[in-house]
Specification:
heterodimer, A: 2 domains, 5-stranded antiparallel sheet, B: mainly alpha, Nitrile Hydratase, Chain A, two-stranded parallel sheet, 11 helices, about 45% helix
Chain lengths: ~250, ~210
């Protein structure tokens, strides 16, 4: 069991820091931009919707990189570290680790370059090298404009209809899931059947998503999830769920 | 790993992260993975093209045009495409958007308990509180208490609807139009909106 899959409802966390900024340190913007570039240059975009001419883009990036990969990394963290580090600190750890593991940079290069910038002092303003084709940037911006739709038209009919009583499966724990822990084993009612079918970036194995399948909005009574004592009775919890996570009650 | 090591923070944690990300970006440029302008262009795109200013215009239009509002609630992606907004409203993280309408007696809140799913084209990038595990954990179970901490003190009779984006829809909230705004133009109405109001953790003040 991964704590990251079971965040919903944890007690004793104290007040939320109502920090409205997107980035709380200037460096955080840079790792965000690198992640977007990786998504916009990912090799899977050649067969995405729309199909991007990714093999013609003059980048050395040749990997498959999506939200699914970033999330898998976050879900693989030591759960105490997950709470300890800020959002973009986790991104920096995961993404720099990826570039080392995939052989784009070595750990020694990264450490040496980091030391150079540290010695330089004024890190956020320190100059970057020049280079790279504008065609790389055009592809990344095109990805932002046109997206990577997971929606597919498939002939399979949805198994459930609005009003059906369902139970959420406790699918086997895998490296990555889109089935929130607090809903597993809980009973709900289908409140909307989304049109079409939705793929996920890759197969999550026995967890079950990947190939296009119907998706639903499922409504849960809070007492069903948290028990009557700990829940807000005058509320409804709606979760968007892939069909593989749902079974007839 | 000992607990002592696990919970010890580098005193120079920020400067180290700043240097490391700078080093990574420099190496990626040198090795031809990205260009020297890629990151700046991405950031500029979110400053100028994809941001909460788009969501504000969508909400303001829904307030002044009941027919548009109906279409927005039925099929947000198609309705949003009617408006004169920057290109890319169905782009990354906005491919499939749905809008939940606040009305007397019903208050909607968007959450993402598994990560930080957010409708980029209409709301831009999510604020830190939305990405914070504490918010994600607590809003799921005790929405009324968290809303009160955020300054939204709902009457006990108001039903809260929570929308957890665990699949492929990205959600935003259509807040209630504040009283005393009958004479305002659509642009003036749009200026009243905040990301928080379009996420359901703030009311719109006139």
């Amino acid at each position: 069991m991964k704590l990251q899959h079971h965040l919903g409802g944890i007690e004793n966390l104290g007040p939320v820091d109502f920090q409205k900024r997107v980035f709380v340190a200037p460096w955080e913007e840079r790792i965000f931009g690198i992640h977007v570039a990786m998504m916009g240059l990912s090799n899977h975009l050649a067969s995405a919707l729309p199909k991007y001419p990714i093999s013609e883009v003059p980048t050395r990036f040749e990997s498959f990189w999506t939200w699914g990969h970033l999330r898998t990394g976050a879900e693989a963290m030591n759960p105490f570290d997950y709470f300890k580090f800020r959002y973009y600190e986790k991104w920096l750890g995961g993404i720099s680790g990826f570039f080392v593991e995939e052989g784009y940079v070595t750990e020694e290069e990264l450490d040496a370059k980091t030391a150079e910038y540290l010695a330089d002092g004024n890190v956020d303003e320190a100059p970057l090298p020049k280079g790279g084709s504008p065609a790389i940037d055009s592809q990344v911006i095109r990805y932002l404009l046109e997206g990577d739709s997971p929606k597919r038209e498939v002939p399979d009919k949805p198994r459930f209809k609005v009003g059906d009583k369902v139970t959420i499966k406790d699918v086997p724990p895998e490296a990555h899931t889109r089935c929130p822990g607090h809903l597993r084993g809980r009973a709900g009612v289908i409140s909307e059947v989304y049109e079409g079918a939705y793929a996920y970036f890759f197969s999550t194995g026995p967890d079950g998503i990947g190939e296009p399948m119907p998706c639903y909005s499922v409504a849960f009574e809070p007492a069903e999830i948290w028990g009557p004592k700990l829940s807000d009775q005058k509320s409804t919890f709606y979760a968007d769920l892939f069909e593989v996570y749902i079974e007839a009650a | 790993m000992s607990d002592k090591k696990r919970f010890s923070y580098d005193t120079d944690r920020e400067i180290y992260s700043a240097a490391k990300v700078r080093a990574l970006e420099a190496l990626l440029i040198e090795k031809g993975v990205i260009s020297d302008k890629t990151v700046d262009k991405v950031l500029d795109f979110f400053e100028t093209k994809m941001g909460p200013f788009n969501g504000a215009r969508i909400v303001a239009r829904a307030w002044v045009d009941p027919e548009f509002k109906k279409r927005l609630l039925k099929d947000a992606t198609t309705a949003i495409a009617e408006l004169d907004l920057p290109a890319g409203m169905a782009g990354a993280e906005g491919e499939h958007i749905k809008v939940a309408e606040n009305r007397p007696g019903v208050h909607n809140v968007i959450i993402c308990t598994l990560c930080s799913c957010y409708p980029w084209p209409t709301l831009g990038l999510p604020p830190y509180w939305f990405k914070d595990p504490t918010f994600r954990a607590r809003m799921a179970r005790e929405p009324r208490a968290v809303l009160k901490e955020f300054g939204v003190d709902l009457d006990p009779s108001v039903e809260i609807k929570l929308w957890d984006s665990s699949a492929q829809i990205r959600w935003m909230v259509l807040p209630e139009r504040p009283a005393g705004t009958d004479n305002m133009s659509e642009a003036e109405l749009a200026a009243l909106l905040t990301p928080e109001a379009m996420m359901g953790v703030a009311k719109v003040a006139a």
